[in-house]
Amino acid sequence: MNIALPAFILLLFVVPGYLFLSAFERKENTRFEAKPFDVFSAQALVAALILHCVAVALLFYFVTSKISLDLLLKLLLTYKLSKSDLAILHNKILYILTYFGALSLAAFFFGKIAQKMRFWLNPYKDSRFSYNTPWYYELKGKLSTAESAEFTKISCMLQSGGSTYLYYGILEDFYLTQNGELDRLVMSEVVRRPLHDDETPENSGADRFYSIKGDRLIIKYSEIQSLNIEYLYVNQLVS
Amino acid sequence: MRALMGEKAQKIMKDPNGRQQLRDFLASGKKEIEITLSSGEKMTVSSERPERAKGKAA
Question: Which residues share a beta bridge with A206?
Fold first, then answer.
């Protein structure tokens, strides 16, 4: 109990830092910056310290100047609490819980805002402070050279039943691994042809291609031998 | 994660005629195609950036 309570209080203090960092580095269940847990924890601790300093400063200037950290220090250093300390805890428990709850929500909210700001100021893969997840930028078309592209055509080579096929399709979704590597592609309007059935003067039509039935084809990246990404541009004609 | 899909592209993908013509375009190997949607709206789909295509034409 003597060790558990300070550890629990420390964890409570660091939670806003974890929430901020998680909101800043995650989008659609994918982490943009793969890093070891100890590095993530150290950064979360720094973020938590900054968040608490800002929150306490705001409380001090706008709510009450009667902020005392004595009780907190006593809890962390496992000092025996007096009856008056326990009475303070009992009376202020709602404020304490509200403080942590509100700060956690604010940390998550500011993390998302910080992420949007980073994307806004660094929109492309080759931007100075872009996230270290190249596949995200490639497959979202966030390249300075593909600025006005509307969708992505994928051409990939796969082995199937002893033969090699070329699959062409429109990329609808993609999945990344925890490390930001490509895991799966989800394509629609997929056509395929055998690799050896190249275009010739005598045979250049779309008959070489077999249309894949179904709404969405999911291909594992690990099974793709080679992958070609082509950005397509759409221009609306005035009728 | 959602891949790149602009507003005009979504119009094409939501239209059955548009989807079929797009599929034909993928199989054709052409660089550009004109697509007519069920509503009569016409669009061109090209693998070249509009600025680059204009530069080449010039």
Answer: none
Element containing residue B11 per DSSP (H, E): helix B7-14
| Contact present, A173 and A146 (Cβ < 8 Å) | no
Which residues 67-106 of chain A have a CB within 8 Å of chain B? none
Nearest-Cα residue of chain A relative to residue B28: A206
The Cα A172–Cα A109 span in angstroms is 29
Token look-up 């005629």 returns B17
- In sequence order, the β-bridge partners of residue A232 are A151
What ipTM does the predicted assembly reach? Answer: 0.88
What is the helix (H) or strand (E) element at residue A185, kind and residue range?
strand A182-194
Q: Which residue has the tokens 């500011």?
A: A110
SS3 at position B19:
helix
DSSP letter assigned to residue A208: G
Q: Mapping DSSP to helix (H, G, I), strand (E, B) and coil, where does residue A123 land? A: coil
In tens, the pLDDT along A21-35 reads 999 998 887 888 878
Q: For the full predicted model, state whether its pTM sits above 0.90.
A: no
